[in-house]
Amino acid sequence: MDEVDDILLKVHKTFDIVGKKWNGMIIYVLMSGPKRFSELHSSIPSLSKRMLNERMKELEEEEVVVRHVTNDRPVRIEYLLTKKGYELGMALEPISKWAIKWIK
Amino acid sequence: MDEVDDILLKVHKTFDIVGKKWNGMIIYVLMSGPKRFSELHSSIPSLSKRMLNERMKELEEEEVVVRHVTNDRPVRIEYLLTKKGYELGMALEPISKWAIKWIK
DNA sequence: TACATTAGGTTACTTTATGTAACCAATAGT
DNA sequence: ACTATTGGTTACATAAAGTAACCTAATGTA
């Protein structure tokens, strides 16, 4: 088992998450605290409900977020980062620093 | 001009680069030094020549990489990170740390 | 009673992005 | 003349994302 190849594989799998449209932004927004479906939707206006829903299902599957249903009516859904997700969010922070420095 | 919205926009634009299939891996591989077209291709076997070529054109356009043609025959093309690209690569490093910790 | 609203979706359909494999141009080696 | 090499390009197939209308359950309003 080649250590270098193993790392490359893991990095590759991680970029399959981060390198998927919308995921970076979703995690970035969730770093400011739990958000409801509609809050995520309005925070990223160009992200459609269809894609938001699909991405959240995938991120839940990856154990990056947790979906929490309240008893309110109409139903309210809160999405929050897991520890894994929070640490991924932390790992994305330098990207936002880079963005501020380099994007005109 | 809302400062928060401005940052969100810049982060959004950055995730349009990083959150595009293959770009993270390409930049990650280039962090170990300049690479020829064929070296990038063999470092990331599942990335086709077509997509590699397309991504490199885009990254050059974004001024993340520079394309350097040597006088050798057959022609050799070297891709290297610009300062902007190198700093983006640095910003991606925590992601590889996260990968090692969290990907099984 | 009937109708509208709200949250969080889902469905059907269109458009765009990516994958696959064959092909090409220039040069060098046999 | 034939073959290999590098860094592509082309045509075509499949997968992913965008769009807009619709749905469900409950509650509020006329």
UniProtKB/TrEMBL annotation, chains A, B:
Q: Which UniProt keywords apply?
A: DNA-binding, Transcription, Transcription regulation
Looking up InterPro entries in the UniProt record yields: HTH_HxlR, WH-like_DNA-bd_sf, WH_DNA-bd_sf
Its ancestry begins with: Bacteria, Bacillati, Bacillota, Bacilli, Bacillales
Q: Which organism is it from?
A: Fictibacillus fluitans
Residue ranges occupied by any HTH hxlR-type domain in the UniProt entry: 9-104
List residues traversing the bilayer: none
Its recorded name reads Helix-turn-helix domain-containing protein
Q: Which PANTHER family match?
A: HTH-TYPE TRANSCRIPTIONAL REGULATOR YODB, TRANSCRIPTIONAL REGULATOR, MARR FAMILY
